[in-house]
Amino acid sequence: MFRYAHTNMIARDHKKLIAFYKEVFHCRSIGETRDLRGEWLDRLTGLSGAHIVGEHLCLPGYGEDHPTLEIFSYDHMEESDPKINRCGLAHLAFEVDDVEETLKRVLENGGGQIGELVTAEYPGGKRAVFVYASDCEGNILELQSWS
């Protein structure tokens, strides 16, 4: 069997970031909290004394069993500045009814805006509204709406 299971985000403050995704994007708690440590986790992560806490949130538009957004914090973490054009995971994209209203909620909940809100025309008469934003910890988001 193959199926997409989750995307993991490491947060400075997992409780604050979990609250952000619940408030802005309607992610839901499904009772999958974590408080992990032990020799098996040290071997898995390659870290000595690793300790992880956090929660899996059900993404909007999906049932209770997957995929999830896994938001964790480690006791000890490395800092970096995410950039829109860096190699690796670039952003999380959410299709929303109203990009401007969702961007407003992002900003009200401690997030930010990257670049401008734009409208793009696609073949076949499709039209999309896009904006890049960031969550309350600086992770990059794409908000999009199609008509």
Write the layout of secondary structure elements.
Layout (H helix, E strand, L loop, with lengths): L5 E5 L3 H12 L2 E10 L1 H7 L5 E8 L9 E7 L17 E4 L3 H10 L3 E11 L3 E9 L5 E7 L1
Parallel strand pairs: 1-4, 5-8
Antiparallel strand pairs: 2-3, 3-4, 6-7, 7-8
Q: What would your notes on this structure say?
A:
This protein is an alpha/beta fold. It has two domains: 69 residues, no CATH class; 55 residues, 2,3-Dihydroxybiphenyl 1,2-Dioxygenase, domain 1 (Roll). 20% of the residues lie in helices and 41% in strands. It contains three helices and eight strands, in the order E-H-E-H-E-E-E-H-E-E-E.
Keyphrases for this structure?
alpha/beta, 2 domains, 41% strand, 2,3-Dihydroxybiphenyl 1,2-Dioxygenase, domain 1, 8 strands, 147 residues, four-stranded mixed sheet, metal-binding, single chain, methylmalonyl-CoA epimerase activity, globular
Average pLDDT score: 91
Query: How much beta, percentage-wise?
Result: 35-45%
Characterize the biggest β-sheet: 4 strands, mixed
Outline: globular
Number of strands: 8
Helix/strand order, N-terminal first? EHEHEEEHEEE
Estimate percent helicity: 10-25%
Number of domains: 2
Distance between the termini: 35 Å
Q: Structural class of the secondary structure composition?
A: alpha/beta
Could you tell me the radius of gyration in angstroms?
17 Å
Instruction: Going across the biggest sheet, name each strand in turn.
Output: 1-4-3-2
Can you count the helices?
3
Provide the low-confidence segments as ranges: none
Organism: Enterocloster lavalensis
Keywords: Metal-binding
Protein name: VOC domain-containing protein
Pfam families: Glyoxalase
